[in-house]
Amino acid sequence: MSKKILIIEDNRDLVHLLQGHLRDLAFQVETAFDGISGFAKADSHNYDLIILDLMLPGLDGMEICRRLRRKSSYVPILMLTAKSSEMDRVVGLEIGADDYLTKPFSIRELLARVKAILRRIEGLTNGAKVDMPDVIRAGDLVIDPEKRSVTLEGKSLNLTAKEFDLLLYFARNPGNVCTRSQLLDRVWGYGYHGYEHTVNSHINRLRAKIEKDPTHPTYILTVWGVGYKFAEMEIPKE
Q1: pLDDT of residue 100
Q2: pLDDT in tens, 90-122
Q3: Tally of CA atoms within 13 A in the half-sphere of 106 that contains its CB
Q4: Of 82, 139, 193, 217, whose Cβ has the fewest other Cβ atoms within 10 Å?
Q5: In angstroms, rounded to a whole number, what is the distance separating the alpha carbons of residues 209 and 112?
Q6: What is the pLDDT of residue 53?
Q7: Where are the alpha helices (H) located in the chain, listed in sequence order?
Q8: CATH number of 4-129
Q9: Shortest CA distance to 139 belongs to which of 237, 238, 235?
């Protein structure tokens, strides 16, 4: 079955151009030209990817991204914007965009990004089919990959999609030291330099949720001058 893509973009000429190229690659494509109708479609239908403009009438792309990341189901988001400042890129990635493309861009580059995101998600899904049955226990933490849920001392934690992915990656690789660039590549799915601070932000927020004292963490440890690692403790699997 072909992948289903939603384009939320107010530039109709650009939408029609993207729509044609994506359909040439056998993708199913739906479109929305404003934020309110775009979010309504994204919220009520299942898509394999959303191409989301940042500046939209009615509801901007940042708010759409925030709302989608509050949902339990995960859909990858490729964010488009005319803004090129580093802060805009970082904010977009921190609230949950999977990739970021600044206008003007080449169609070839966008298509390459789309394919890369879908390959990564497919790879994670295929790998998850093998790993899903294993519930991971680490100290007072219980991580259920199938339900995408985490409990601490029996109490459910409210993690964002990326926080969950980051914690799951750490828990599956206890003791392995990862640089920020490696975490970007393995959890976010891209290896761009310059986004390392988004890793720091996610780890700080994750520590605030799972650590009794985030200033003295026992789960996610800092390896000074290198990166981070998950503490080596007994991690039985059900």
Answers
A1: 82
A2: 677 777 788 888 888 899 999 988 988 888 777
A3: 3
A4: 193
A5: 36
A6: 94
A7: 12-24, 35-44, 61-69, 86-94, 107-131, 161-172, 180-183, 196-210
A8: 3.40.50.2300
A9: 235
